[in-house]
Amino acid sequence: MALKIRLARGGARRRPFYRMVVADSRSPRDGAFLEKVGSYDPLLSSECPNRVVAKEDRIKYWLSVGAKLSETVTLLLSRIGLCERPVVRDTPIKSALGKKALERQKVRQQKESSST
């Protein structure tokens, strides 16, 4: 069974509230889960200590058993110091400029610098 620590949405319409849960990766977002290990309330200010609440010992246990963190949970836990912040690229590799486009851009910059 592939385990994930991810967010499950709760709350009313336009008033989101998320639970950090350990669930099988194949189960639906708000479906069955094994254990609730924390919560996230995006409506609270970023300085509020109750915005992200996590059971540190249980998260470490599930990680030792083989659970993987989702990207969002990793970012939330890195803000409170439970894990390292992942490297987030500004532009994906697929959308990076190709060789010819880089050459055209370089020529354009040289023309602009020589004209001024």
Question: Mind explaining what this structure looks like?
Answer:
With 116 residues, the protein is an alpha+beta fold. The chain has helices at 56-65, 71-79, 99-115; strands at 3-12, 15-24, 35-40, 52-54, 68-69. The chain has a domain at 3-79: S16 Ribosomal Protein, Chain: A (2-Layer Sandwich), CATH 3.30.1320. It has a 5-stranded mixed β-sheet. A hairpin with a 2-residue loop joins β1 (3-12) and β2. It is elongated.
Average of the residue pLDDT scores: 90
Element-level helix/strand string: EEEEHEHH
Q: N- to C-terminal separation?
A: 64 Å
Low-pLDDT runs: none
- The CATH architecture name of one domain reads 2-Layer Sandwich
The whole-angstrom Rg is 21 Å
Strand order of the largest sheet: 4-3-2-1-5
Percentage of β-strand residues: 25-35%
CATH fold node name of one domain: S16 Ribosomal Protein, Chain: A
CATH superfamily of one domain: Ribosomal protein S16
CATH class of one domain: Alpha Beta
The gross shape turns out to be elongated
The structural class is: alpha+beta
What kind of assembly state do the chains in view correspond to? single chain
Short description:
The protein has about 120 residues and is of the alpha+beta class.
What are the defining features of this structure?
single chain, 116 residues, alpha+beta, S16 Ribosomal Protein, Chain: A, 5-stranded mixed β-sheet, 3 helices
